[in-house]
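Final report, closing paragraph on structural work. Over the funding period we assembled a curated collection of sequence-structure pairs, and we close with a single example.
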Amino acid sequence: MRVVIYLAICVGAGAVSQALAEDPPAEFTHDEQALLQRGFHAVQEKGQFKTDNGLKIFCRKVAAPGSRIASREICGTVDQLNDIEKQTQEELRVGVVSDYSQDMGRSRSQGHTNAPVNGTAADLCSRGAPEAAIASCTRIIDDKSASAEMRDRALRNRGWLLQQAKELDRAIEDYSAVLILSPTETALNAKTYVNRGLAYAGKGDVNHALSDYEQAIKLDPNLVSAYLNRAGTYMARGEEERALADFDAVIRLSPKDPVPYVKRGAALVLRGATDRAIADFSTAIGLNPRDATAWADRAYAYRTAGKNAKAMEDAKEAIRLDPDLASAHQSLALAMQASGDSHGAAAEFAKAVELNPHDAKALSAQGDSLMAHGERARAIATYTQAIAMDPKLVSAYVNRGAAYMGDFEWEKAIADFTTVIGIGGGTYQGAAYLNRGQSYQAKGERDHAIADYDQAIQLEPGNMEALRHRGFLRQAKGDSRGAAADYARVVELAPQDSVAWRGRGYAELSQRNYDAAISSLSEAIKLNPEDALAYQFRSHAYAEKHDLQRASSDDQAVLRLHHKG
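Its predicted structure, as stored:
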């Protein structure tokens, strides 16, 4: 019995970078030089570098999130700017690209900050600490004498602040109110639709989220964040083609931004277009060689393409750049496992889970590693943990079911495969029907098994395993014609399959089609001269044709093989 096991890996996204600058002078450290190469400049006052606690301060103007026109300046030390980049990477990795709140000042610059403020309600609403900011925004919103413009900005800011505090229903109320209050603020409203879409997505309301992203794009066809978040939603729904179209749009709008290349690469991997995916990851790495996620994802793509040496090189570089990146350890583990280093793979899978213990897919991958080691009990426990975190993780159900089959726990296996079928397992659906059919067959429930093999073959007409099993059961139920048809399809797909030739010969023998049976059984013997059953069945066919000499010769072959065995 062959059990079908599937692996599922989560592929992440990358970070933002700028084009390379000229070679920096030697007075900067390695990390400071990297900032200069990304377009930052060291701030100077009176000919001296400006510092914060002895560390140089660097600044760079960047496009405001979701904007193609407005810009803002980001400043900080090496550590501060790297922290900002890591936060941005994480937001992009899960498909969240906010458009942030609106500043209360005349410039309408993007972003709520904690910069020093003068204490007025407007300043606190725009730049105060979150709790104080929400309270200040509320005072403006409730103030009947406040101008419509002030209330507009206060609603946008409070909505964003509430969204960060995970008070999504209240955030949606504020966004909805400001869209009614200021219907002519086209550019601002496009960003507000994106933020409300994110709030809906956070509540699991995917349809409303998609509707808001689409409305944002109608208002501002150049709004990158709308395309990115809509693409992330499509990816979550398994609609890779639509996601790819949105990533294409982002790359047209922002060709020097590595993030959409990484995300499009991830979608291409899921579509099986590994060469195109590798090209995208390589472009992202060229734009930002310090993006550990791009290296990790290219490692996974190389592994998928069977290029394990390159996969390990990339995964190790990703770990060098960011030792705490769980996906890099996972990519390295997969490459090691494929190269036969099962112990090294197990250690890397364990590290990935240690770094991200709430990643259900990483846990499931660790379960796959344990299965490869034959540790079914631990694998089952690990899959069970993954399922508890993500009750719709079909790969974990499929592989836990396979583990149960290995322990002959047919009822538990059937329950897992039934869950996959109920969820709608996508690419796992055929495996679920095949494995459940084998479980039913092991229990002696032939009709249920045949029904499942029917479904597996309908999903994948060339599923030889399902065809073999159905052929065997049809023969056992007396349907020799159906059995012969199934085995004939197998030998058409795999002419070297001696067992299928034998099955076909036996089915033809049962139909008293002796010449056809002798032909099929002779092919089985040619492919496997040690097949005693093929000799036995051919002997019967010869005997029915009164060719007793050949029948006797085959009987002698059967005795010889039994004695040899």
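Confidence is low (pLDDT under 50) at residues 2-26, 63-72, 87-119. Strands lie at 41-42, 44-45, 48-49, 51-52, 55-56, 58-63, 71-76. We thank the funder for supporting this effort.
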